[in-house]
TrEMBL record:
Belongs to the ferrochelatase family. GO terms for biological process: heme biosynthetic process. Fe(2+) binds at residues 201, 282. It comes from Lysobacter antibioticus. This is Ferrochelatase. Signal peptide: none annotated. SUPFAM superfamilies: Chelatase (SSF53800). It is an enzyme of class 4 (lyase). It comes from the Bacteria. PANTHER family: FERROCHELATASE, FERROCHELATASE, MITOCHONDRIAL. It holds the Pfam family Ferrochelatase.
Length: 331
């Protein structure tokens, strides 16, 4: 079930002065070194993402990570860039438009925690325009302090607005059914893979040790989707991708799991990434391109199942969550 943390509950205004905002991570404005450096710098200065002492982190970030990483990552973005922009930006924008169609009674907007359109600036604009109530729906099905709580930090600083945050929807039955259905349709078109891999974005193990519920919620999501597909336990695996830095991240890794599946002689693997609401660099470049190439070198075929993106089912389920939250607010 989606969970809500009510940050400020004031008097209950009508839906006419209410905005629902889909908030995603953010992405560079262009697939070049300058834009990627600007984006990474904002992202990696967030203490929710990297909690090291600034005395240690800032020199490392400014003199090593940003100069060394930005150009390489810009080339990766260039390999998946769409005519209208970064995939994450394009799909998020289209998804917000699709949710607006489902929810004509309120304004539906989208924002990015890092980069444009800025979440912080959007809240200021809404307040200036006379909006009184904002429901934030972060596009992260599973809660993590590094993502959801960071969206909540900005929301919590908004002045003059009544605000509410959807903390997660990792076990929402409509979300589980929509992801399961997308896998079912992919398999109906392409033929069943021999194994289904649920690949979630990773997180430092330390975050989980400190109480972040993310890994537990990923496990619950994967189990629920597998159950909806009637898959026996041996037909699926959960793994974590997109490792960053040197410390220990959640295991098993997606790359290592694919190697292990290849070693077991499994040739056709379906990979789905249910932690990502929309396709982005991490799904398209890392999984559908690079990991698929590595798996092909083992003689296997990795078949990537796209994210829900702006599909009607996705728009309808998010609109359903928003409508429920707005209803609860009014009571
Ligand atoms: C310490 C670093 C990082 C943590 C913690 C982290 C958590 C985290 N991230 C997502 C979702 C996405 N991350 C994306 C890109 C991305 N992530 C990190 C680092 C951490 N993420 C970096 C440095 C990058 C940028 C690319 C790179 O340099 O490798 C994206 C895609 C953005 C895009 O433009 O397409 C998403 C989405 C989650 C869900 C999460 C915690 C659970
Ligand atoms: Fe800095
Ligand atoms: Fe990330």
């Amino acid at each position: 079930m989606p969970a809500t943390a009510s940050i400020t509950d004031r008097d209950a205004p009508s839906t006419a002065d209410t905005a629902v905002v889909l908030v995603n991570l953010g992405t560079p404005d262009a697939p070049n070194t300058r834009a990627v450096r600007r984006y990474l710098s904002e992202f990696l200065h967030d203490r929710r993402v990297v909690d090291m002492s600034r005395w240690l982190w800032c020199p490392l970030l400014h003199f090593a990570i940003l100069p060394l990483r930005s150009g390489k990552v810009a080339n990766k973005y260039a390999s998946v860039w769409l005519p209208e922009g970064s995939p994450l930006a394009v799909h998020t924008r289209r998804l917000a438009q699709a949710v607006q169609q489902e929810l004509p009674e309120v304004r539906v907007l989208h924002a990015m925690r890092y980069g444009q359109p800025s979440w912080k600036q959007l809240l200021q604009r809404l307040q200036a325009e006379g909006v009184r109530r904002v429901l934030a729906l972060p596009l992260y099905p599973q809660y993590s302090t590094s993502t959801t709580a960071s969206v909540g930090d900005v929301l919590g600083r908004a002045e003059g607005l009544a605000t509410r945050l959807v903390e997660h929807y990792h076990d929402d039955p409509d979300w589980v059914a929509a992801v399961a259905d997308s896998i079912h349709r992919h398999r109906a078109n392409e033929g069943d893979g021999e194994h289904l891999l649920f690949s979630f974005h990773g997180l430092p193990q330390r975050f989980v040790d400190q109480g972040d519920p993310y890994a537990r919620q990923c496990e619950t999501s994967a189990r629920a989707i597998a159950r909806a597909l009637n898959l026996p336990d041996e037909a699926w695996t959960l793994s974590y991708q997109s490792r960053f830095g040197r410390e220990r991240w959640l295991e098993p890794s997606t790359a290592g799991t694919l190697d292990a599946l290849a070693a077991r002689g499994i040739k056709r693997v379906d990979v789905v990434a249910p932690g990502f609401a929309v396709d982005c660099l991490e799904t398209l470049e890392e999984v559908a391109m690079m990991l698929a190439e590595d798996f092909a070198e083992h003689g296997g075929e990795l078949r990537y199942v796209p994210c829900l993106n702006e599909s009607p089912a996705h728009a309808a389920l998010l609109a359903g969550i928003a409508r429920r939250e707005l209803g609860a607010w009014e009571r």
